[in-house]
Design a protein that fits this description.
heterodimer, A: 176 residues, mainly alpha, Rna Polymerase Sigma Factor, Chain: A, globular, B: alpha+beta, 3 domains, 5-stranded mixed beta sheet, two-stranded antiparallel sheet
């Protein structure tokens, strides 16, 4: 199995199929992260596709090929924010009835996580997507978010704490 | 499950422990703590559960994602289509920055130039006062022509142009000709004008312009004989001005011209030598050359010369090109009567000599010693008269040129006043340049704006 660095080197030599490998490797993580960031699954796929196209065009700007995941997430994050700023959400999560979150018979699965987590502040969504979905180290999270590793560690911790509080509130609402 | 709170200050360590981002030492410390602390252990378990639920919520739908082909298809199509420049924004920011900078500098220069100028009203008041003094002096002399001209000049503003001053000179001539209708037609109609006739520029304040109108021809007899001098006040400049008229000569008129030149040059020594070369090159000669350069005084070089009359115009034209002609006076001395008188005297002497010669020829032997002596005297007188006539003729044929070349400023070290004056000139030019640039920018922006806007709109629409 090729490493990220080897794939990037091949792509730079003109091997487009190698780029397909990179897409294969990161597309699901990126779609999950984009879904979390924008709250729309279809839009997330479009954003990820645009991210891959843009990344290919600017591949010469990637300095550390070993951190291509963090680099892709940086582009994705930028595109997701552009998408959000160009389109106001038609649904306000805060105004939604809690009942709409619960559709499954099993109370543990009745929480619609994607709808619930959309209520997190944008900074927390950024941190959780980078850490949990992209599986980036603190150094990479810091680079993607434009901050220091120490600050990234604190932000991830606080995001986890807010996630816990959000889940706790939802669980109490449904009587778990 | 209730929300478990970990021990104080342990939450961040637990988070990093979960993310496997702790150093080996801290990792051991947290592991040891977890062995003994139920709350922290439960909190960590909750954290793990939250993580799993979070990942599951987003990764599950994402597993069906397959963007590989769509991305590669798009990239292949992208590679086949010619590179298209992305729609670029028009750099209005730079236009505004440059425009602001130009505006600020222009404003500063404008204020500097305005503050460095003398109030115009003060100059005008001084000019009016001076002109009134000149008018009073003219009234005292009772010269009607002068009064007329002064009235004429008083109506002018203080910043008269060259053309207005020349027009004044023509007006002066018109007045003189009204009083003396016998003045012949002008020889060439040239008016020699300058604003520094007799002196280098000084800071002594306003003075009087003089237009010396020479009516040297026969019939131009007025208060000064063959020369009519009229002074006109014409503004506050620190100098005199002179305009000279060359009158027409005819066969009966015998004039001896005297040409007096004042030329301002950058290098008096060099230019005066060039002028001498011009005169000698045209068949004349020069004499009485002087070059003076005193401390704190402008350098001056002057000389006298004689040149054949028919070459005088050519010499004038060439000398004029050497510098800024500040003053030129052409004086014509009417020698007609002297010439005629000498001619008659010579004829009389010749007649007398002929008579003596006839007496001698009748009886040479009987000629007394006294008669012989008278005969010799008569011959001597005839020779003298011939010489006098020749002298007059020579004087008529040769034009006298007196030329003075001077530099505008003494060669002094730079003073604050001179530096200020120089700076003002520079500021004026800089202001003019900046205003030109600003107008240019404005025009370019006005012309280009519709085209650039249309292009930008098209690109934007294409990119959308």
């Amino acid at each position: 199995m090729l490493t990220d660095e080897q794939i990037v080197r091949r792509v730079r030599q003109g091997d487009l199929d190698a780029y397909g490998e990179l897409v294969e490797r990161y597309q699901r993580r990126l779609v999950a992260a984009a879904h979390h960031l924008v709250g729309d699954e279809d839009a997330a796929r479009d954003i990820v596709q645009e991210t891959f196209i843009e990344a290919y065009r600017h591949l010469e700007q990637l300095r550390d090929a070993a951190k291509v995941g963090a680099w892709l997430y940086g582009i994705l994050r930028h595109r997701a924010h552009s998408w959000l700023s160009s389109r106001r959400p038609t649904v306000s999560w805060e105004d939604e009835s809690v009942d709409e979150w619960f559709v499954a018979a099993d109370p543990a699965e009745r929480v619609d996580m994607t709808a619930l987590l959309a209520g997190l502040p944008a900074a927390d969504r950024d941190a959780l997507a980078a850490r949990y979905l992209m599986d980036l180290s603190y150094d990479e999270v810091a680079k993607a978010l434009g901050t220091t590793p120490q600050n990234a560690r604190v932000r991830v911790c606080r995001a986890k704490e807010r996630l816990r509080n959000l889940l706790d509130r939802a669980e109490k609402e449904v009587g778990l | 499950m209730r929300n478990v709170t970990p021990c104080p200050n342990w939450r961040e360590l637990l988070s990093a422990y979960q993310d496997q981002s702790l150093s080996a030492k801290d990792r051991k410390r947290v592991a040891a703590h977890l062995q003994t602390c139920d709350d922290c252990r439960q909190a960590l378990a909750q954290m793990d559960g939250d993580r799993d639920r979070f990942i599951e919520a987003y990764m599950a739908p994402a597993t069906k994602t397959d963007l590989r082909e769509s991305v590669l298809t798009a990239l292949r199509a992208d590679a086949e289509t010619p590179a298209q420049q992305p729609a670029r924004k028009f750099p209005w920011g730079w236009v505004f920055r440059i425009g602001n900078a130009v505006a600020v500098v222009t404003l500063i220069l404008f204020v500097a130039v305005v503050m460095s100028r003398e109030p115009k009203s003060a100059i005008k008041e001084q000019a009016v006062q001076n002109s009134q003094e000149v008018g009073a002096a003219a009234d005292a002399t009772g010269d009607a022509a002068t009064r007329t001209l002064i009235r004429h000049a008083n109506g002018h503003s203080v910043d008269e142009t060259y053309n207005n001053r020349v027009a004044d000179a023509y007006d002066s001539i018109a007045v003189i000709r009204t009083r003396n209708p016998k003045i012949p037609q002008l020889h060439s109609g040239r008016i020699y004008y300058s604003n520094d006739a007799d002196a280098v520029p000084t800071d002594n304040g306003p003075s009087v312009y003089g237009y010396d109108v020479l009516a040297a021809a026969g019939g131009a007899k007025n208060s000064t004989g063959d020369r009519s001098v009229v002074s006109i006040y014409d503004g506050p400049l620190n100098s005199n001005a002179a305009a000279g008229l060359l009158v027409r000569s005819d066969d009966n008129l015998k004039l001896a011209y005297d040409i007096d030149y004042h030329v301002q040059v950058k290098n008096a020594l060099q230019k005066s030598r060039q002028a001498q070369g011009i005169i000698t090159g045209l068949g004349g000669f020069t004499m009485n050359y002087q070059y003076v350069q005193d401390e704190h005084e402008p350098a001056v070089a002057c000389f006298n010369g004689k040149i054949p009359a028919d070459k005088a115009e050519a010499a004038l034209a060439q000398i004029e090109k050497l510098g800024n002609v500040r003053g030129l006076t052409i004086a014509g001395e009417d020698l007609t009567e002297q010439f005629q008188a000498n001619r008659q005297e010579i004829a009389r002497q010749l007649e007398h000599a002929k008579k003596l010669d006839a007496i001698g020829s009748r009886s040479a032997s009987k000629v007394a010693a006294g008669v012989e002596s008278q005969r010799n005297d008569a011959k001597g007188q005839v020779d003298a008269a011939k010489q006098a006539l020749t002298g007059l003729t020579t004087r008529h044929e040769l034009v006298t040129i007196s030329a003075a070349f001077y530099e505008a400023q003494p060669r002094e070290p730079l003073t604050l006043a001179r530096a200020t004056a120089g700076t003002r000139h520079v500021l004026n030019y800089a202001l003019l340049l900046l205003v030109t640039i600003a107008v240019f920018f404005l025009l370019v922006a006005l012309v280009a704006a519709p085209f650039v806007g249309l292009r930008y709109w098209r690109r934007r629409r294409a990119s959308v």
